[in-house]
Design brief:
alpha+beta; two-stranded antiparallel ribbon; 2 helices; 2 strands; 28% helix; extended
């Protein structure tokens, strides 16, 4: 599912870093289209100011 949706896991770039995230590497619209086509029970939304 992660590969289909263009999601990658990012871990800290140096020892001791606490940064850990999942980053979407394709557009939200495209990811949602792929999720719907594949029957995945999730959708992405943009955060921040409108």
């Amino acid at each position: 599912m992660m590969k289909d949706l263009g999601v990658v896991i990012i871990e800290g770039s140096c020892p001791g870093s606490s940064y850990f995230a999942a980053e979407l590497r394709i557009s939200i619209d495209e990811a949602n289209r792929i999720a719907e086509q594949n029957g995945y029970a999730l959708r992405f939304i943009a955060e921040g100011p409108d």
